[in-house]
Task: inverse folding
C-alpha cells in the first residue's frame, strides 16, 4: 500500500534571512536579498550581482573534525538542517535510534576544487593540501558531512540535477517514503555563493548586468528582464511517513502529494515548452488533481528572456484555465540553483502557513507570454490550500512538486 | 627562533586550530591522546607545521613523537637544522 508523505520540519539559511521567521518577513515585505560582490568586478566578471548570504560561524557549534570537511554550501545546509530537525522534534537521540535518511541537492563545490588545485600548483606536494578539501570538493559534500554530523543511518545520497537538484531531492525522498522504504528523510538543497563557482556561468552572458540598483536586477516575467542573478544558501525539508509522524506526535505541516518530472530531450541550455508541460501534467495526474485545484504556482522563472517565456507558456497551457496566482521568489532571492527546488518549497510553505502570496517583485510590464498569467506583483493576502513549485535545469531536467495543506 | 618561541607557537596553533584545551597541555602529556588525533588529523598537522615552521614532517617521524615535549624537541631540532643549512 502506498503511504502518505508529510512535511514535519523546515529550515532555511538564505539571502532573505537565516531563520524561518526572518525569511517569512522578507517574503511578505517583498525584500530583495541581492547585492554586489566587488571580487567579481576585480576578477573580470560581466556581472557582480549576487545574493548576499551571511556566512555562519560554526566554531563552537561543531567540532574541528566536523567543520574541516564542510564546504560553504555545507555550512548553510547544516544551519538549515539544525532548524528543521528542531522544528520536527527530532533530537540526536531520535536520530540514533531511528533510521533517518538524507537526500540533498547539490551540483558543485568549486571553491574547494580551485583552492586545493592552487595549493598543488604552488607547493608541488599533495600532502600539503590538508584533510578537509577532499570532503569539501565532491558534489556529495553536503550529504557526506551531514550524515556524519547527525549520525544518520538511512538512505544517504546527493542528487545532482543542475538547477532542479533540490526539487528532485525532495521528489526522490517522497518516492522512498511513499513506497515504504524509509520513514523519514532529511531532504533539501545547498548552493555555494562564492565567485569561484559562478565564473563559467557568468561567461555565458546569462547573468543580469543591471547593476545600478541590484534590488531591481532580477525581474522574472517582466518585459525588460536581462538575465538571472546567482544566489544560494541552504534549505531543508523533513519528509516523513504520515503514520509514523502521527505516532510520534510530530508537527505535521503539510502533505507532499506529487512529484512530476520530465526531460526535454532537447538543447543543453535552452529550455522548451513541451518538457515542463509534461512535468506539470504528470504532477497533476499523480496527485489526482485538476488545474483548478492549484491556488498558487511558485514558478521556476529565473529572469532569463527565453526561460521565463517558455515556462509562462507551459503554465498557461496546463494550469491556465483558472488563472492561479503565480510568482517567482527568485525576484528577491536570485537563482538559488542547486538549492532552489528545496528553498522554494520552504518559501511557499511559509506563504501557505501565513496566508499570503509573496510578490514577484520588479514585475512592471508583462510580455506577450507572461500577460496570460495571473502574476502577483504585490503581496496578496489569501488562503493557499494547494501549491505547485517548478524547477528546471540544464540538460532539460524538470521537476514539479505539489504540496497540500492538511 | 628560541626554544620558548617554538613552544609558544606550537601551543598557539594547537589551541586555535586543533581546539586543544590550554589546561591539558603539559610537557609530559600524551600528544595523540590529548589532541584526540586520528589519521586525518595527522594530515592537517603536517600542513600546519609547514605553514608555521617552513619544513615538512615525514609521516614516520610521528612514530617517535609521544609527548608534547617530544614534539617541541622535534620541531626545535628541525628549525635549528634549517637555520644551519
Result:
Amino acid at each position: 500500500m502506498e503511504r502518505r508523505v508529510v512535511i514535519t520540519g523546515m529550515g532555511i539559511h538564505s539571502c532573505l534571512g537565516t531563520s524561518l521567521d526572518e525569511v517569512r518577513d522578507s517574503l511578505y515585505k517583498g525584500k530583495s536579498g541581492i547585492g554586489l560582490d566587488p571580487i567579481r568586478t576585480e576578477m573580470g566578471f560581466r556581472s557582480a550581482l549576487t545574493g548576499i548570504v551571511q556566512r555562519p560561524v560554526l566554531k563552537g557549534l561543531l567540532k574541528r573534525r566536523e567543520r574541516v570537511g564542510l564546504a560553504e554550501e555545507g555550512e548553510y545546509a547544516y544551519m538549515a538542517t539544525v532548524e528543521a530537525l528542531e522544528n520536527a522534534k527530532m533530537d540526536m537521540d531520535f536520530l540514533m535510534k531511528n533510521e533517518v535518511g538524507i537526500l540533498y541537492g547539490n551540483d558543485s563545490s568549486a571553491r574547494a576544487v580551485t583552492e586545493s588545485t592552487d595549493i598543488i600548483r604552488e607547493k608541488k606536494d599533495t600532502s600539503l593540501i590538508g584533510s578537509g578539501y577532499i570532503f569539501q570538493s565532491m558534489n556529495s559534500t553536503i550529504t557526506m558531512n551531514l550524515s556524519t554530523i547527525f549520525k544518520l543511518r538511512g538512505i544517504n545520497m546527493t542528487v545532482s540535477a543542475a538547477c532542479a537538484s533540490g526539487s528532485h531531492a525532495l521528489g526522490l525522498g517522497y518516492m522512498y517514503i511513499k513506497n515504504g522504504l524509509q520513514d523519514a528523510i532529511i531532504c533539501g538543497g545547498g548552493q555555494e555563493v562564492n565567485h569561484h563557482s559562478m565564473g563559467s556561468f557568468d561567461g555565458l552572458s546569462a547573468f543580469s548586468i543591471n547593476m545600478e540598483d541590484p534590488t531591481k536586477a532580477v525581474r522574472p516575467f517582466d518585459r525588460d528582464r536581462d538575465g538571472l542573478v546567482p544566489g544560494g544558501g541552504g534549505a531543508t525539508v523533513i519528509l516523513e511517513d504520515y503514520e509514523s509522524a502521527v505516532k510520534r506526535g510530530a508537527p505535521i505541516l503539510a502533505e507532499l502529494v506529487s512529484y512530476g518530472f520530465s526531460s526535454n530531450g532537447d538543447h543543453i541550455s535552452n529550455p522548451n515548452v513541451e518538457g515542463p508541460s509534461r512535468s506539470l501534467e504528470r504532477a497533476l495526474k499523480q496527485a489526482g488533481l485538476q488545474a483548478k485545484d492549484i491556488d498558487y504556482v511558485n514558478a521556476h522563472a529565473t529572469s532569463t528572456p527565453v526561460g521565463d517565456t517558455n515556462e509562462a507558456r507551459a503554465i498557461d497551457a496546463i494550469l491556465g484555465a483558472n488563472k492561479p496566482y503565480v510568482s517567482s521568489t527568485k525576484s528577491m532571492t536570485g537563482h538559488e540553483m542547486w538549492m532552489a527546488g528545496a528553498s522554494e518549497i520552504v518559501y511557499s510553505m511559509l506563504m501557505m502557513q501565513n496566508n499570503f502570496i509573496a510578490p514577484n517583485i520588479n514585475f512592471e510590464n508583462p510580455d506577450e507570454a507572461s500577460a496570460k498569467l495571473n502574476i502577483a506583483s504585490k503581496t496578496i493576502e489569501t488562503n493557499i490550500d494547494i501549491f505547485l513549485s517548478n524547477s528546471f535545469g540544464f540538460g532539460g531536467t524538470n521537476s514539479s512538486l505539489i504540496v497540500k495543506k492538511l | 627562533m628560541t626554544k620558548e618561541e617554538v613552544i609558544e607557537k606550537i601551543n598557539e596553533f594547537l589551541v586555535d586550530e586543533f581546539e586543544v584545551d590550554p589546561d591539558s597541555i603539559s610537557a609530559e602529556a600524551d600528544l595523540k591522546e590529548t589532541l584526540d588525533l586520528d589519521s586525518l588529523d595527522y594530515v592537517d598537522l603536517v600542513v600546519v607545521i609547514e605553514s608555521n615552521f617552513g619544513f615538512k614532517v615525514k609521516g614516520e617521524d610521528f612514530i617517535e613523537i609521544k609527548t608534547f615535549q617530544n614534539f617541541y624537541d622535534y620541531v626545535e631540532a628541525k628549525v635549528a637544522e634549517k637555520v644551519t643549512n
Observations:
- Chain B touches chain A at residues 17-19, 38, 40-41, 43-44, 46-47, 50, 56 (CB under 8 Å).
- The CA atoms of residues 5 and 76 of chain B lie 9 Å apart.
